[in-house]
Amino acid sequence: MALYDKKGPIIMKEEPGVKFYCMCGLTEEAPYCDGSHNGQETGKTPYIVKFSEAKTVKICGCGKSERLPYCDGAHGKFEK
């Protein structure tokens, strides 16, 4: 399953604090992990990121980025 079943990034403003980004694609709270991977044997765990200040981020929606959990434009390589 592709991460969130999306073809592009999720762009959002994050406030300071710890964030848990879903990497298994099973969450109902994209892009955040809601624990849906538990007991599913996905072999994936959330990416944990701590923000010290507010900032806008692009979270990968396709799961193909080499900079997970951030988008690097990899989704464009697969669109045609």
From TrEMBL:
Keyword Metal-binding: yes
Keyword Iron: yes
Any GO molecular function: metal ion binding
Annotated Pfam families: zf-CDGSH
Gene Ontology cellular component terms for the protein in this record: cytoplasm
InterPro entries referenced in this protein's UniProt entry, alphabetically: CISD (IPR052950), FeS-contain_CDGSH-typ (IPR018967), MitoNEET_CISD (IPR042216)
Record keywords, A-Z: 2Fe-2S, Iron, Iron-sulfur, Metal-binding
Name used for this protein in its record: CDGSH iron-sulfur domain-containing protein
Naturally occurring in which organism (per UniProt): Brevibacillus laterosporus
